[in-house]
Amino acid sequence: METGSSTQSLTFYDFLDRMRNPASLDLVRSIKSFIVSFSFYTANAENDGKRLQDFLLTMEAAIRDHPLWANATEEEIDCALEGLEKYVMTKLFMRTFAASSEDARIDLEISEKIRMLQNFLKPEHLDIPAVLHNEASWLLAEKELQKVNAFKAPREKLLCILNCCRVINNLLLNASMSQNIVLAGADDFLPVLIYITIKANPPQLHSNLKFIQLYRRQSKLVSEEAYYFTNLVSAKSFIVDLDANSVSMDETEFLEGMSAASLANQPMTHPQPTNLSRTYTLEEIQAGPSTRMHGNETNISGGLNYPFMEAEVGELTVGDVERLLRVYKDVVTKYTSLCRAVRHISMSKLEIGPFSERTDSLPPQLEQTSTKVDEERGD
Questions:
Q1: Residues facing 292 on adjacent strands
Q2: What does pTM read for this prediction?
Q3: Which of 231, 205, 242, 207 is nearest to 116 (CA)?
Q4: Residues 6 or more apart whose Cβ sits within 8 Å of residue 152
Q5: What is the 3-state secondary structure (H, E, C) of 113-158?
């Protein structure tokens, strides 16, 4: 599954090597000028996409006529254009990827809906035949799809989608041969892709698809690439509109599943602000660190956990960052207070009973100890 990515790396580094050649100065100036020019325009995804496509066409003509590519093969020209696309889009990534609040909102809504569907949607609800129930293949396809957010270049993002879809297609072909039935059509492929997408819940699905559609060279978004990409777009649209009528499930069962999943996915209550000036009694120190969460003072050893203690990495969202920071600060503050209290007790060598109050005079059993300490210090 890494062959395409490795080839792309070689293509990119070959492009960079040629751009270091003094003879490429005119091309370098054109590329830098284009990148800088983006800041002159108001951010607009569609306009930015058209501007990029026009630039790539212009640069293709310039590269074909350039001395550095004299007598170059079509494959070498194509490699140069692939390297150019990656370089430019890597530089413009922050401007072009998920740049609008609307994209961020759609990404979050899709991710949240998928999280709810993960709680109760089964393969049979999408009419996936039992012969295609292959956890190993499904897991491999999920992992490929989840990689899409790790790359900045449109081609590399698209390659993740292709790898995922090829795993599914191979699953269909193998099942067809082993069962002597035909399972290679879109009616069999799309439900599996939908289920894989739900299981994978790839980050920023909407933004990644939009990014590929706008900034991948249009001459490359054809044939197999276009077919698999279009299928994932269809899978996303199906998930967005998914309701009881979309799946083989009773409406009541579907609504109950969504309701239960919604309750299960509700964010944890924010912990109360910590009183930084508070000092802890010996009784509290002996009992162990505690935290006020959900309005209750609770000992950690007593069983109540902090928010996210049972959470998995894939369950966390961007919205959880603030809550995680609050919990982190709470833990650090209480740990610091605990260390300060223990250090104070150690230095003073006092043993204050759990229920006693501090007085100006020492208990009789400590008077002799105190005197000896004073004598040793020379006080």
A1: 297
A2: 0.68
A3: 242
A4: 86, 89, 90, 93, 97
A5: HHHHHCCCCCHHHHCCCHHHCCHHHHHHHHHHHHHHHHCCCHHHHH
Q: Which pLDDT belongs to residue 345?
A: 67
Q: How many CA atoms lie within 13 A of 368 on its CB side?
A: 2
DSSP string, 196-248: HHHHH--TTHHHHHHHHHHHS-GGGS-HHHHHHHHHHHHHHHHHHH--GGGTT
First-residue to last-residue Cα distance in the chain: 78
User: Cα separation of 175 and 169, whole Å?
Assistant: 10
Query: How would you class 331 by CB atoms within 10 Å of its CB: exposed for 0-12, middle for 13-18, buried for 19 or more?
Result: middle
Structure confidence by residue, pLDDT tens digits, 25-47: 999 999 999 999 988 999 899 99
Q: Find where tokens 């899978």 sit.
A: 235
Instruction: Say if CB 81 and CB 60 are below 8 A apart.
Output: yes
As a residue count, the chain comes to 379
DSSP letters along 277-318, please?
T----HHHHHH--EEEETTEEEEGGGTPPPTTTT--GGG--T
The β-bridge partners of 290 are 299
Give the per-residue pLDDT at 137: 95
